[in-house]
UniProtKB/TrEMBL annotation:
<comment type="similarity">
    <text>Belongs to the GST superfamily.</text>
</comment>
<feature type="domain" description="GST C-terminal">
    <location>
        <begin position="105"/>
        <end position="231"/>
    </location>
</feature>
<dbReference type="InterPro" id="IPR036249">
    <property type="entry name" value="Thioredoxin-like_sf"/>
</dbReference>
<dbReference type="InterPro" id="IPR004046">
    <property type="entry name" value="GST_C"/>
</dbReference>
<feature type="domain" description="GST N-terminal">
    <location>
        <begin position="10"/>
        <end position="98"/>
    </location>
</feature>
<dbReference type="InterPro" id="IPR036282">
    <property type="entry name" value="Glutathione-S-Trfase_C_sf"/>
</dbReference>
<dbReference type="InterPro" id="IPR040079">
    <property type="entry name" value="Glutathione_S-Trfase"/>
</dbReference>
<protein>
    <submittedName>
        <fullName>Glutathione S-transferase 2</fullName>
        <ecNumber>2.5.1.18</ecNumber>
    </submittedName>
</protein>
<dbReference type="GO" id="GO:0004364">
    <property type="term" value="F:glutathione transferase activity"/>
</dbReference>
<dbReference type="Pfam" id="PF00043">
    <property type="entry name" value="GST_C"/>
</dbReference>
<dbReference type="Pfam" id="PF02798">
    <property type="entry name" value="GST_N"/>
</dbReference>
<dbReference type="InterPro" id="IPR004045">
    <property type="entry name" value="Glutathione_S-Trfase_N"/>
</dbReference>
<keyword id="KW-0808">Transferase</keyword>
<dbReference type="InterPro" id="IPR010987">
    <property type="entry name" value="Glutathione-S-Trfase_C-like"/>
</dbReference>
Length: 263
């Protein structure tokens, strides 16, 4: 994949993204809109390990220097950044039949906003910090690990309770697949990076499996590169490494007297 140096499209939606939980929000919804309405889009992989997102051409699109971002060449080259803002924009403008969203005058519109806000302000930041302290921090700090893994675990308990009697997070009856689900898919699929097992949360696991049955979800998780499914057991060296990290986190929990509780 060549290193991007600027925008390459002149029409349609251009997605600038990487294989991260936030990045998959945009690619999954774009694939859903493509399947439902024929909406075409192009994409470029922005390798965040090479700091492409910090280059001037990219920060002209997103001043914060983060992925994902989109440019809507069919709407005056409007740039939209932050994954949840992208979900809202695409749903408002292109989900004309409300297949993946709700009308603003519906109460479920507000409920969806609440759960998307919960992801943006809670699960995403906490799981991101858990992943950092467990896997990437040069110093293994017991307090940081048990603090963020524990809070992530608590939040998964909240989500599991929400899904106990529902197929999807928001909507009448057992719910309707929507951007409230899409906002969470990338994060839940990456839960193994925190040492938390999805098996601990059976309703979340069933929801993830249900969403993965959708072809657009499968395609979205391929942009710009494939993501392994949390539904598949880890094997070999990956499994051994994760087990060692899990033992380390368990010791940190014991050191600080952590006891799982949710909410």
């Amino acid at each position: 994949m060549a290193r991007p140096t600027g925008l390459v499209a002149s029409k349609g939606i251009e997605l600038l993204t990487w294989s991260t939980p936030n990045g998959y929000k945009a690619s999954i919804l774009l694939e859903e809109l493509k399947d439902a309405y024929g909406l075409e889009y192009s994409s470029q992989g922005i390798n965040i390990s090479q700091n492409v997102q910090k280059e001037p051409w990219f920060t002209a699109i997103n001043p914060n220097g983060r992925i994902p971002a989109i440019v809507d060449h069919d709407n005056g080259d409007l740039a939209v950044f932050e994954g949840n803002a992208i979900l809202s924009y695409l749903a408002r403008r292109y989900d004309t039949e409300r297949r993946f969203s709700f009308a603003p005058d519906e109460d479920d519109y507000t409920r969806a906003e609440s759960w998307i806000g919960w992801q943006h302000g809670g699960l995403g930041p906490m799981q991101g910090q858990a992943n950092h302290f467990v896997r990437f921090a040069k110093e293994k700090i017991p307090y940081g690990m048990q603090r963020y893994v524990g809070e992530t675990e608590r939040l998964y308990g909240v989500l599991d309770a929400r899904l106990k009697d529902r197929d999807y997070i928001v909507g009448p009856g057992k719910g309707k697949y929507s951007i409230a689900d899409i906002a969470l898919l990338g994060w839940v699929n990456a839960v193994h990076g925190t040492t938390i097992s999805i098996e601990q949360f059976p309703y979340v696991k069933a929801w993830l499996a249900r969403c993965f049955e959708r072809p657009a979800v499968q395609k979205g998780f391929q942009v710009p590169s494939a993501s392994a499914s949390a539904l598949k057991p880890q094997e070999g060296e990956v499994a051994a490494k994760m087990e060692a990290l899990r033992d380390m986190v368990d010791q940190a929990k014991k050191q600080y007297g952590y006891v799982y509780s949710s909410p």
